[in-house]
Amino acid sequence: MQKNARTTVSVVMIVKDEEAVLAKSLESTTWADQVVVYDTGSTDATREIAARYSDTVVEGYWDDDFAGARNRAQAHATGDWILVLDADEVFLGDAKLLRKRLDRGPEDTFLLRVEGEDDGVVVPLTNHFSDTVITGVRIFRRGTRQWQGKLHEQPVQTGTSTGSALLHTCSIRHSGYTAEAVLAHDKGARNLRIAQRNLENVEASGTPAEIAAARVHVARSLVLADEPTEALRYAEQILPDLADRRQRWLLGFGMSAVAVNSGTEEQVRLWLTEWEQHDESPVFAQALRARYEMSRGNAEAALEQLEKIPSTTVTSQGQRLDRLDLAPVEVAALAKLGRRRPAQLLARRAVERDVAPGAPAILVECFTEEQLSGILAKASPRLWRELVQACVLGAHHAAVREFLGVMYRTRPGDVTVLSAASMLAPVIDLEDAAYWSAELRRHGAEEQCLLVVLAQDAERSARDRAVAAALAISAYGDERAVPALEDALALVAPEDEAALLAELDIVAPGLVGTNA
Predict the structure, then answer these.
(1) What's the rounded Cα separation, in Å, for the pair 173 and 453?
(2) Is 280 strand, coil or helix?
(3) Where, if anywhere, are coiled coils annotated (predicted)?
(4) Phi, psi at residue 4, to the nearest 5°?
(5) Percent of the chain with pLDDT over 90
C-alpha cells in the first residue's frame, strides 16, 4: 500500500529592516518545507540574510496595510499548512510532533502561545505579569483564511471551519514590542499613523461596528506611541459609544495597565472594571487590581481580589494563571495585616513550588532569620539566583541587604551571593563592608575586597575612606589601601582631625603614626 505523502508546512513572514533579528528567527524554521519571506522595502541586509535560509524571498512593497502584505506573502506559499511568523519571533517546539498533530485533525486552525521577552513591555499585549503570554491563530490549512485589517490584522475564515485548537507542544518567543525594539523601529508612530488613517476611511463609509473597532485601534496605538495621557483621554471619549463586548474588553484590557502606570485612581478603577466585566475570565483583571491595591497599601482590598481567584485558571485561549504566582502580593498583604503565620506558610509553599515568595524587604519583616533561612534552604538554583538578583536591584534598602546576609548564612560560601555582595560598595556601611570583605577574602576574592573599594571611592566621606583603608591595611596588610588612606587624611577638615585620629587608633593602633 502506498504511504500518504508527508504533511508539508510553509512558514510565511513579512519583513522590513530586520537584519538584527531575522537570522535567529529563520534558524528556528529550518525544519519547514518552505519559508516565504516577503520584504516590504528593506534598506539593510535583511534580504541577503533571508536568502541564506529561503528560496522564496519576495521583493514586495508596503502600502500601510498589514493584511494586504500578509495576503501577498501568503500567495507564494505551497505547503499544506501555513505557519505565520514575524522576523522578531522564534518558533519553539518539536517539528515531528507538530506534523503528527496536523495529520491527526480534524481542525483546520491552530492557536499557539506567543511568549514575550521580559524586558519592559511598553504595550499591554498580555496579562501584565513578569513573563508576557498571549495566544493567537498562527497555523492554518492553506486556502482556509485570508487576512483582514490594515492594522491589528486577523486571519479570517474564508469558508466553513472544521474547528480550532490550542497546540501545547509548540510556542513562539516574541520580542518585537519591547521598549528597545519599539524605539529602534519606530513602531509606535507607524502603527498610530496607520490607525488614524484607517479611522478616517472607516468613518467616511463604514458601519457603526467598524467605526468602533477602528477607534479602539487608535486608542491602543496611542499607547504604543508612548502617549499614555492622550490614550486615556481618547479611550474615555469613545467608551460610551462601544456596544460590542469584545471591543469593550480590548479597550479595558489595553487601558488598565496604562492607567496603573500613568493614570489617576479613578481611571484605574474605571478600566479595571471594564476589563473585568467584559473578559470571559476576569482573573487577570482581578490579579492586576490586587497588585494595584497592594501598591497603595490597601492590604484588605488586595486580599479581597485574591480570594476571588481560583487555584488555577486556564482560559479558552490557553492562558493560565496559578494563584500561587501571586504569592508576593498575598504574602505582603497578609504580613501587613499582622497575619504572619498564614504569610509564612504561603511563602514556604511558594518556594517549594519554585515561585518567588515576595520582595526581600517584606520577607525580612515577616520572618525571623531562622524561619527565613529554613524557607530559603528549599529554593531551587533558579529561584535562588532570582532572589539574589532582586537583592542587587534593591540594595539601596538596608532590609534588602539584610536579606542578602540571611541568604549567605543559609548557604555559606555561596558564589552567587558573594558576587552580589561585591557590588554593594556604593550603598554599604563600614560594618557590613568589613563583614563582606572578610567573607570575600576567605573564599579567594581578595581583589574584590569592599574595604579597599570603599577606601578608593572619591564619593565617600573622608572619614569613611580613612577608616576603611585603615581596616584593610591593619587586618589584611593590603597595600592597595595605603594611597587611599593618604588621600583621605589630606581631605579631613582641621577641626575633625583629632576625632578621626582617635577613631583610627582604635581600629588600627599605631597605623596612622607610621603612614600619615
Answers:
(1) 41
(2) coil
(3) none
(4) -65, 145
(5) 71
Q: Which residues contact 35 (CB under 8 A, 6 or more apart)?
A: 10, 11, 13, 26, 29, 53, 54, 56
315, three cell numbers: 482560559
Q: How far apart are CA 230 and CA 195, in angstroms?
A: 15
Q: Could you give the C-alpha distances from 108 to 6, 17, 135, in angstroms and in order?
A: 17, 32, 16
* Distance, CA of 497 to chain centre: 51
Residue type, position 268, single letter: V
The answer for residues whose C-beta is within 8 angstroms of residue 10's C-beta and 6 or more apart is 32, 33, 34, 35, 36, 77, 78, 79, 81, 82, 83, 142
Q: What are 44-79's pLDDT values in tens digits?
A: 999 999 999 999 999 999 998 899 999 999 999 999
Task: For residues 421 and 432, give the distance between their C-alpha atoms in angstroms, rounded to a whole number.
Answer: 10
Do residues 332 and 359 lie in contact, with contact meaning Cβ atoms separated by under 8 Å?
Answer: yes
pLDDT in tens, 450-476: 999 999 999 999 999 999 999 999 999
Taking alpha carbons only, the member of 105, 116, 100, 110 closest to residue 136 is 110
Cα first-last separation, the chain: 97
Handedness of CA 317, 323, 324, 325 (dihedral sign): positive
How far apart are alpha carbons 31 and 403 in whole angstroms? Answer: 47
> pTM above the 0.85 mark?
no
305-342 per-residue burial string, b: 16 or more CB within 10 A, e: under 16: bbeebeeebebeebbebebbbbbbbbbbbbbbeebbee
Half-sphere exposure of residue 242: CA atoms within 13 angstroms, side-chain side: 24
Reference 216, options 129, 121, 208, 319; nearest CA is 208
* Cell numbers linked to 266: 479613578
Other C-beta atoms within 10 Å of 1: how many? 3
Torsion angle, alpha carbons of 288, 290, 291, 293, to 10: 120
Q: Angle at CA 19, nearest 5°, toward 14 and 20?
A: 115
